[in-house]
Design a protein that fits this description.
single chain; 185 residues; mainly alpha; elongated
């Protein structure tokens, strides 16, 4: 959805609001089959948009007890008594996990862009910066060039390279060698 203009996102929301509303009704009143049929008709991008729409429909300050007050059965269909479903005083916001900047590990493309030094500087996480130092040294790049491209001091680059080699020794991995990627090319 991020590649769409604001107008296109608005049009998509208008088009998918009935599907989101239908999903709400199916969850409250329908069966698992009803939910499966509705979801199977949507593309991955539409499912992502419906998830965002459902998020917009929910109030993060609403209490979990209140939000789930309509649920009077457990996952097996057995009746839940009020004490079993009304224990939590938390809000929807209280249950939301904190999001990290990057969820999927190291962005290798960002590492290579940063080392290329072309265009705008690239913001790197700590893990990406470590990888960039290793890749830079293994390519045979000068310490000064690595430092400038990563926005680090030369001493910081040296310390990072030493820690990378030390970690490799401690874990029994092959210790990286300066310039080895340049020799292979």
């Amino acid at each position: 959805m991020s590649g769409l203009s604001a107008e296109q996102r608005g049009d998509m929301v208008e088009a998918l609001l009935p599907e989101a509303a239908g999903l709400v009704v199916d969850v409250h009143e329908g069966s698992a089959d009803d939910i499966q049929v509705r979801l199977s008709r949507l593309t991955r991008h539409e499912l992502e948009a419906v998830a965002v729409i459902l998020g917009a429909l929910a109030d993060p300050e609403r209490g979990i007890r209140d939000a789930l007050s309509w649920v009077d059965f457990d996952e097996n269909g057995n009746r839940l008594y009020p004490s079993a479903r009304t224990r939590s005083e938390k809000t929807v916001r209280d249950l939301a996990p904190a999001m990290r900047r990057q969820l999927a590990g190291v962005d290798v493309v960002a590492v290579h862009r940063a080392l290329a030094g072309v265009g705008q500087s690239v913001a790197l996480s700590a893990a990406e910066r470590r990888m960039a130092v290793e890749v830079g040294y293994r390519r045979g790049m000068l310490k000064k060039v690595i430092a400038v491209r990563l926005g680090m001091s030369e001493d910081a680059v040296d310390r990072s390279w030493d820690r990378i080699k030390q970690r490799a020794r401690e874990t029994g991995q092959r210790v990286p060698v300066r310039g080895e990627l340049g020799k292979a090319a």
